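Researcher: I need the complex structure. Ligand is 1HE. Inputs:
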Amino acid sequence: MAKDVTIDISKFERLELDAREDGVWIVTLNRPEKRNALDVKTVEEMVDFFSNAQRAGVKAVVLAGKGDHFCAGLDLIEHHDEDRSPEDFMHVCLRWHEAFNKMEYGGVPVIAALQGAVVGGGLELASAAHVRVMDESTYFALPEGIRGLFTGGGATIRVADLVGKARMIDMMLTGRVYQGQEAADIGLAQYRVEGSSFDRALELAQRAAENLPLTNFAICSAISHMQNMSALDAAYAESVVAGVVNTQEPARERLAAFADKSAMRVRPNS
Ligand code: 1HE
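Model: Output:
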């Protein structure tokens, strides 16, 4: 895929960016002293990075948080200090949506490495990733109800999609915390590891980065778009996307490798 954009790592302050040789980028929320709470600047840097990642040739992203917690959600202190009007906060939320939509629909696989608190807006952020990996310290909550607030970063869509409406309402009404196997079982994470969620997330990102970029673009954009369509329209869109992806030149090489028996075979886990 053409690289017509470059990302200037040095201009990012809230996000620590590490571009690996294999095309996987590590994007780390870098305010551990504030438990990686999302202030306006962090969200703007996310908009910037995720708007450009695909065209800059980023093959996959590991999204991590520095310190003991992935993300404590909305920066409550900034929100308090700013004493925002309804209109101001609507625009704050629209920028969160811009950032998270660029993640979900941007065409680059994003694997979230979760530890500690994944709460409020932190869960909204994690739910915009394509794959979530939790470790033994990870816990999920939507404390908005307790704080006198409401979700504004897409939880009503994405968290409800992951766990269902009833569980999400319970989390918001009662402050219910999910952790351990139960959290994985209800869909908050696809992987639960005993060791480091970062190591597993990196492994998964590297695996995804070996796919063809156009194939990953379709997986990490088209599926989300299709969820918003009627079944009839989604099936039509799927055929168009498959028409483009399944006839790409590099896919022919992979098909040839299957035909000459040099390609891997799909086997059960040993
Ligand atoms: C923060 C934030 C924050 C910590 N905004 N500054 N989110 C919440 O309701 C979660 C709020 N945070 C917590 O419950 C706890 O901080 C944690 C469980 C995440 C971590 O606890 P702990 O004991 O490790 O840290 P701490 O002592 O509570 O906080 C350490 C510092 O981080 C402290 O700052 P300091 O300058 O006094 O040292 C905290 O103020 C700061 N900090 N969390 C600002 N969230 C688009 S709408 C989305 C709506 C929501 O996201 S609502 C949910 C908000």
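Model: Summary of the prediction. The beta strands are 15-19, 24-29, 60-65, 110-114, 117-119, 131-134, 139-141, 178-179, 191-192.
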